[in-house]
Amino acid sequence: MIRFTGVSKFYGDFQVLKSVDFEAMSGERIVVCGPSGSGKSTLIRCINGLESYEQGEITVDGQRLGKDAAALRKVRNQVGMVFQQFNLFPHLTVLENLTLGPIRARKMSSGEARDLAMRYLERVRIPEQADKYPRQLSGGQQQRVAIARSLCMEPRIMLFDEPTSALDPEMITEVLDVMVELAGTGMTMIVVTHEMGFARKVADRMVFMDHGEIVETAAPGEFFTAPKSQRCRDFLDKIL
Ligand code: ADP
Ligand code: MG
């Protein structure tokens, strides 16, 4: 579903991705971890073309991500993304946040879009918040709205970039629970997170990044009990 071959990316002289090889199969759930500044956000932002790259090749569902604007559009339609900072439209209600994409990009009628939105709000367990504005919700509720909004575009891949890092501790579980449920539907998911309980529960594969490289990739059982590299052991010692 996703393939990176020798992908390098630079910010000026600074190389943020160093010849990255990476693959995700359809339905696979991958958790990406690593120190701050190691290139995790850059890696997943490349998957939906939010970042360009200088060397190598990225293909998503058979589309090569490069200069071709039509291919980029196709990929973006299939890839949903959830950010640390929710990124909801503050001047729109929850329901309007959810129906905007389906109406504009998927050309749904407002009635159809509304039904779809309510279905996904039920999935994330906050249908009663439909008419509120984002600022009236807790952080955990806002993040669940952001997840529902992405799902309304019916993507084939969901990317999460530290979705619980901005949340108060008591709200982390309600968001992770929704993500665990989503994992159960067979969605292809790439999740940057340091929530290792979540990783153990849902990850098919762990990816550890450091200094722009994928240093290690392994099944969670092996990753947590017998990390191969010293860098990975040091990192796990700090966060576990
Ligand atoms: P992570 O998500 O693992 O914390 P990022 O992918 O955000 O790492 O960033 C990796 C490195 O690239 C960091 O050192 C960061 O400072 C640098 N970086 C990220 N975005 C930019 C940018 N737009 N311009 C210059 N450097 C950047
Ligand atoms: Mg990041």
From TrEMBL:
> Mind telling me which CDD domains this protein's record contains?
ABC_HisP_GlnQ (cd03262)
GO MF, one term, reads: ATP binding
* ABC transporter domain: residues covered: 2-236
Nucleotide-binding is among the record's keywords: yes
Q: Please give the PROSITE patterns that the UniProt record associates with this protein.
A: ABC_TRANSPORTER_1 (PS00211), ABC_TRANSPORTER_2 (PS50893)
- Source domain of life is Bacteria
* Pfam families according to UniProt: ABC_tran
Assigned keywords, A-Z: ATP-binding, Nucleotide-binding, Transport
Entry keyword annotation includes Repressor: no
The record's similarity note reads: Belongs to the ABC transporter superfamily.
Q: What is this protein's record name?
A: Amino acid ABC transporter ATP-binding protein
Instruction: Report the source organism.
Output: Albidovulum litorale
